[in-house]
Amino acid sequence: MKSLFKLFSIIIIIIASNSYSSAAEKVEYLKTDWSFKGLFGKFDRASLQRGYQVYTEVCASCHSMKYLSYRNLAEPGGPEFSEVQAKAIAASFEVTDGPNSDGEMFTRPGKLSDKFVMPYDNVKAAQAANGGAYPPDMSVLVKARGGGVDYIYSLLQGYDEAPSNVSLDDGVYYNKYMYGNKIRMAAPLSDGLVEYGDGTKATVEQMSKDVTTFLMWSAEPHLEARHQMGFKAIVYLIILTILVYFSMKKLWSRIESEV
Amino acid sequence: MSEKKTKRRDFLFTATTAVGAVGAAAVVWPMIDQMNPDASVKALASTEVDVSSLTPGNTLTVLWRGKPVFIRRRTQEEIDEARKVKMEDLIHPEKDEDRAKNPEWLVMLGVCTHLGCVPLNDKGDYNGWFCPCHGSHYDTSGRIRKGPAPWNMEVPKYEFVDANTIKIG
Amino acid sequence: MSDHDYRPKSKVGQWFNDRLPLLTLANHLTDYPTPKNLNYWWTFGGILTFCLITQIVTGLTLAMHYIAHADMAFESVEHIMRDVNYGWLIRYIHANGASMFFLAVYIHIFRSLFYGSYKSPREIIWILGIIIYLLMMAAAFMGYVLPWGQMSFWGATVITNLFSAIPLVGEGIVTWLWGGYSVDNPTLTRFFTLHYLIPFLILGLVVLHIWALHVPGNNNPVGIDIKKPSKDTVPFHPYIVIKDGFALLMFMIVFAFFVFYAPNILGHADNYIEANPMVTPAHIVPEWYLLPFYAILRSVPDKLLGVVAMLSAILILAVLPWLDTSKIRSAVFRPLYKQFYWILVADVLILGYVGAMPAEGLYLLIARVATAYYFLHFLVILPVLGFKEKTLPVPLSITEPVLGGSPNLAAARNKESKIE
């Protein structure tokens, strides 16, 4: 058994030596209590729904979310809008479809099976409209950034006056948490920018948290299922391990040797 | 392993084996289920078709769940022909009234029930459809009349959303 | 399996077995006499078999949904993660499974180094293992390219460019590997093909690896030759099977933790950004299991020599049975070797650490020292140690604590052991 402990300590060393990505850029991110962390972590539905509102009213004018479909909004483990609400959301978007029997493209109201409508037709159009900077697709953004949710959450609140030693070009802003501190996106949030239906006060902090929660879900739509299954799997494995351990002891007791 | 040992399976070994087997079975399921239709395929389960341009005596073929669906706007002769057929003459007896709620419109999966080919329009001995693969003849209600196919062509779930739009699925 | 005169009891069994002796094989595998003192470090062979099968099964299912096309690969991975039933589970098992596979293989290799399992008569087992390890690295590298993220793309670019270090034909080889003038769709499709093929090659080599193992039988912590079967051995089934099973379950708990609670911790965030040939990520780092070799590559300031050093670091292992001149197998009886062994372990961990750090300043210096030591260990320390080291007395058998044994029985008489 001793060697097994040694083994685990080696594993831990390897993991520790592998956390280089966070070690490379030492920035203290703002902290908040995320409901989806931990063994039983789940999303806060109300926060996801508010987060969707922030995304669609603020972010969506520049940032696409091309891997999401409107049906996802009604799926379990997500914002869980009712099917009727999700259909209404989908129908509020104009979707280009076609070609029809005349070979023409046409627009129609969105359906649940449609992917989120993109603000720009392609990357080039997005760059042209944003002074050459491409607003990244947000579907998996949280997983595509080293600091994850904490980074996004901090970035949204990290806008500040540039220190005197930093000179900024036109259309570039100072952000405490951005890599290199220079960002091409103007501060997207301001207090009261959106009006939440559930009466929650739309402070920058609240909106940052909501929209970051929403982005976490969009990047990991099966997070809740994963946590639930993981708990069951590990409990099962522990039980079986114990059973196998005693079976092994029993079998090996016939041999005068230690296991 | 000597025989004595195999026979003396006590509770501990049985429990261990059983618990292990349950886990192994649980692991197999995701590997099987991944081949079932995925969420994006299921989401496409219904489709809406604009039939305003369809004139009597013509058929529109649309794709639904990867299969052709025939939408036939029938003429009065076709309807009459379909409705006067006696049930005992049918291989798979179904009333035309049940297959086409609105007699002018026949909506069915354009798939031969023999082995899945797509029958041809306005062909065959019964003025309906004819499957070129193995020679099944369907009448103007899409019912099998002659040939190896065992059943009538399937009528999917559909509804008129408005006068000009059919929602299939 | 010449040591078996197995005859099935049933008539049908006999009929079948006379024509295809599968039952003889099964009997050989279950009865296979195994040293009874094998410790948990010996369970990693079974764990590795599990890893290989897991990777093949999850890989096959992923391949049913994955699209090997530069325009669609990234999207198809997202499709797997979002829409395919249990797709997220299968992909996370496969992605983390690669890491688990390497974790297990490194323990397996270092177990062999500690107990001298590579020595005569097990050289072929060892060399087959090195080939398997090389193929694993190739499979892992190509697999990492398939999601077509930024790290996939730039990893592929950097690694394939290693071949450009070859004088004269290097550039031509790189263009040939790419099927174009940069890493692009032709590269992706051929990598997918090879990534699909290699695991089956590994499977074949694993069969040979086990076959070669079953000729002399397992080495053991004492490192002496034992009589088989004898009271030093137990039948493989059920004794070793259940012990391997127990260790495997412990391993699976760690595996499950990664899959369910930290599925992306071993990966790199940049790989969730779709490949972009116009922008290189700020920190480009291979997966953790390749880091020691990456550090060796970067520690040499010359392009060709860096590649040569990196390849030598792996290939030197193939000649290890002849570099190690000691006749004693187990480090248990080699007090000096034991210390050098742990220094080597530390050295490789240090190489892995600096491999993840920027190649500058102190890190570069450490990488150079560690690289030099790595080669020093194999090329100087091991050969010299075999002659100079004063080893401890070795027991004659596992059960009887009689000292004076030796890996070969002839030398067993030579009690006070400065062998030769």
Keywords:
heterotrimer, B: 169 residues, alpha+beta, four-stranded antiparallel sheet, three-stranded antiparallel sheet, 5 helices, 10 strands, C: 420 residues, mainly alpha, two-stranded antiparallel ribbon, 15 helices, globular, disordered C terminus
What's the end-to-end separation of chain B, in Å? 60 Å
Distance between the termini of chain C: 34 Å
Mean pLDDT of chain B: 89
Spatial order of the strands in the main sheet of chain B? 5-6-7-8
- The 3D shape of chain B can be described as elongated
Number of strands of chain B: 10
Strand content of chain C: under 5%
Over the alpha carbons, how many angstroms does the gyration radius of chain B reach? 25 Å
Sheet with the most strands of chain B? Answer: 4 strands, antiparallel
Strand order of the largest sheet of chain C: 1-2
Tell me roughly what share of residues is in helical segments of chain B: 25-40%
* Low-confidence region ranges of chain C: 409-420
**Portion in helices of chain C:** 55-70%
Topology:
The complex is a heterotrimer of chains A (259), B (169) and C (420).
Chain A: H1 2-18, H2 20-24, H3 45-57, H4 83-91, E1 94-97, E2 106-109, H5 123-129, H6 148-157, E3 173-174, E4 182-183, H7 204-219, H8 223-252
Helix pairs in contact in A: 3-7, 6-7
Chain B: H1 3-7, H2 11-33, H3 39-43, E1 47-50, E2 58-64, E3 67-73, H4 76-84, H5 96-99, E4 105-109, E5 120-121, E6 129-131, E7 136-138, E8 144-146, E9 158-162, E10 165-168
Antiparallel strand pairs in B: 1-10, 2-3, 3-4, 5-6, 6-7, 7-8, 9-10
Chain C: H1 11-19, H2 22-31, E1 33-35, H3 44-63, H4 73-82, H5 87-115, H6 123-145, H7 150-161, H8 170-178, H9 185-214, E2 233-235, H10 236-261, H11 291-299, H12 303-315, H13 320-323, H14 335-356, H15 361-388, E3 394-395, E4 403-405
Antiparallel strand pairs in C: 1-2, 3-4
Helix pairs in contact in C: 3-5, 3-9, 3-10, 4-5, 5-6, 5-10, 6-7, 6-9, 11-12, 11-14, 11-15, 14-15
